[in-house]
Inverse folding.
């Protein structure tokens, strides 16, 4: 569990990460991105000060994206189940399960 002395380092990392992302994804200059990122980091610190916050890995959306890629590649005939398994580091059986999840009505199935 992080202690209170870890918070400033975390907030600094948030600011550095945000500055890089803002500079890369917007028309902001590095100085403007840095100023915006510091403001965001300070807002985050004020919002969560004194709290322990769990940050999940966010693997659910990554798995969904991977599974959609598998489904699309299989549906287009690009790759066989065995080839898909090799590409994604999964067994052919797991590939078959993923493809089975996309049979019939499915909330994430592309139309």
């Amino acid at each position: 569990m992080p202690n209170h002395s870890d918070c400033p380092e975390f907030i600094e990392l948030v600011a550095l990460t945000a500055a890089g992302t803002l500079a890369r994804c917007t028309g902001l200059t590095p100085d403007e991105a840095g100023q915006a990122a510091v403001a965001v980091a300070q807002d985050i610190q004020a919002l969560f000060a004194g709290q322990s916050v769990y940050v999940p890995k966010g693997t659910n959306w990554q798995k969904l994206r991977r599974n959609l890629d598998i489904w699309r590649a299989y549906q287009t005939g690009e790759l066989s189940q065995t080839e898909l398994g090799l590409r994604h580091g999964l067994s052919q059986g797991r590939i078959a399960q993923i493809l089975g999840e996309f049979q019939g009505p499915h909330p994430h199935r592309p139309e």
